[in-house]
Each structure stands twice: as structure tokens, then as C-alpha cells.
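Worked example 2:
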Amino acid sequence: MARRSIDLKIEEKGRDQGKLFKITEMSAFDTEAWAERTINAILRNATSEDLSLLLPIIYTYVQEASEMKTFEEVAIENEEGRALLNQATETLAIYLASMFFQLPYDELKVVSEPLLQCCSIYLNPGQTEMSDSVLNNPNHYIEEASTIFALKREAFKLHTDFFTNGAQRYLDLFISKMDRFKTDQESDTTPTSPNP
């Protein structure tokens, strides 16, 4: 099965207006590596307040997105279940996305570089046969900073739909890393007894 892709046309006024870009999802292995690197970066930079807000959101999501049922099964069985799952999904996605884009510059650069590697530009307006990676000639293909952010945002969205597809695996990973992170923080602040 081919990897999914989406097209993004720049509508905003400026030098990139009218340019058409293609964003193609990473391979399964690259997505897994990117997700783990991103989760680690978010947790390393999370404050205690972030964690206290995030943990209940994740547990609510996990409860609604049971491993026993797919999103589609929940939706078919129960309109209320679908509404709860949609709400939990949206809350979790928004919160994680906001934390992602607030990472310190050096870490954000590392975790967002793979997102730009997914982006190419259609070379002939109105034709979708010929395209080239934006990183092959970034200063020529992208002339507005807002375009870079738009590409990263859409690539991020394309790669975070695991909130409805196989979410349990990623959220289990997130929870285990969060629990380990909290334990490490607590042990760092636990007073040690003086040696006799």
C-alpha cells in the first residue's frame, strides 16, 4: 500500500502564493523513530504543570480509545462514544501540538527536520507529475517563512493521526516514558540521608 500524501496550496498573499506542495508520510520505521524522538523532547521540556495537565488527558483518551475497539467500531456502536473519543482526541492532539511547537529552538529544529523531508513542490503549475524535494533547493522553492511553518504544521498533522489509528501503542509509549520521567524527577528531589 502506498504511503499517503496530501497537497497544500499556498493561498496567503506573498511570494509563495499559488505554489503547490506535496507532503508524503514517512515510512513506518521513520514515523516510529520521529514519534519517539518527539515524545522524548516534549517530556524533557515539560514542566510539572504540563505533566499534571497532560496525564489526565492521556488517561481519558486511552480509556475512550480502548485497545479492544477501533475508532470505527466505537463510532458505529455509539454516537456518544464517538463524541467522547473525538473530544479526547482533539484535546490531546492540540495539547501535544502546542507543546511540540514550543520546544526550545535547537530541539524543535531536530524534530521538525524530518517533517520538511516529507515535503516536495510541484514544478509545473497545474501538473502533478513532476515534483522535487523542497530541501533540494529550499531558498528557491520557499520564499516566505510562513510557508515553512505551514508545511511543518501539515506534515505534523499527517503524522499524528495515530491518535485514531493504532493510538494505544504510541500512548503506551508516551505514558511509560512519562512515568519514568516523573520517577526520575522525584528521585532527583528526594533528600538523601547523610552517610554515617
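Residues 164-168 have pLDDT under 50 and may be disordered. The chain has eight helices and four strands.
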